[in-house]
Amino acid sequence: MPNLLNLASSPLLPLLALPIFYWAITLRKRKPKETNLVFYVHDNFSGYDTSAMTVAGKNGPTTSVLEFGTLVAVDDPVTEGPDPRSKEIGRAQGLYINSQLDGKGLHMVFSVIFTEGEYKGSTLEIQGADPFSVKEREYSIVSGTGYFRFVRGYGIMTTEFLDVPNLRAILKHNVTLMHY
Ligand SMILES: *[C@@H]1O[C@H](CO)[C@@H](O)[C@H](O)[C@H]1NC(C)=O
Ligand SMILES: *[C@@H]1O[C@H](CO)[C@@H](O)[C@H](O)[C@H]1NC(C)=O
């Protein structure tokens, strides 16, 4: 009858150890990395470089984004620095909808598509609330592609510049990401 002590000296032992060894290596490889990055989004509803457009609202596409229910499509430049002339590293493409009854909050769903620099070809998928009158708004990063596969994280958004009559804004995003 085989007993456990005999097993220890059995030629099968290395075979039994193999899966544990493999598991230990995989586990080590899966240790998450943390990446922090800061970028700026230029949201211009007017001017020669309009990159945000109202597509629907209570009174059609002419409704202000500051009214509950207004839906906006964006393809905003993403730059390295706060200056609109600083290097463009990607685009923020997606939509936001005014989702607060008093008009003071947006819900954002967009991709940051990196087109230049270290993360070129990768994307971050952003979804969250933007109560824009609050100084620092925290939102979630739900996923990503390329370098950012399996990413999760959060971002803190602050308004660096705001021109209300012309609906132009520069938004700073400071994101913290956990990924493999
Ligand atoms: C957006 O608006 C800002 C502020 O008016 C302006 O300086 C900038 O040139 C515009 N365009 C882009 C691409 O940021
Ligand atoms: C970004 O946010 C982190 C905390 O989440 C903070 O430590 C860091 O100083 C911020 N960086 C910038 C440039 O604001």
From TrEMBL:
Q: Where in the cell is the protein located?
A: Secreted, Extracellular space, Apoplast
Listed under GO biological process in this entry are: phenylpropanoid biosynthetic process
User: Which Pfam families does the protein's record reference?
Assistant: Dirigent
* Claim: Secreted is one of the keywords in the record: yes
GO CC: one term? apoplast
Q: Keywords for this entry?
A: Apoplast, Membrane, Secreted, Transmembrane, Transmembrane helix
Any transmembrane segments, and where? 6-25
What PANTHER family does its record include? NUCLEOPORIN-RELATED
What is its quaternary makeup?
A: Homodimer.
Q: What does this protein do?
A: Dirigent proteins impart stereoselectivity on the phenoxy radical-coupling reaction, yielding optically active lignans from two molecules of coniferyl alcohol in the biosynthesis of lignans, flavonolignans, and alkaloids and thus plays a central role in plant secondary metabolism.
Entry's family note = Belongs to the plant dirigent protein family.
According to UniProt, the name of this protein is Dirigent protein
Recorded source organism is: Cinchona calisaya
At the highest ranks, the source species' classification is: Eukaryota, Viridiplantae, Streptophyta, Embryophyta, Tracheophyta
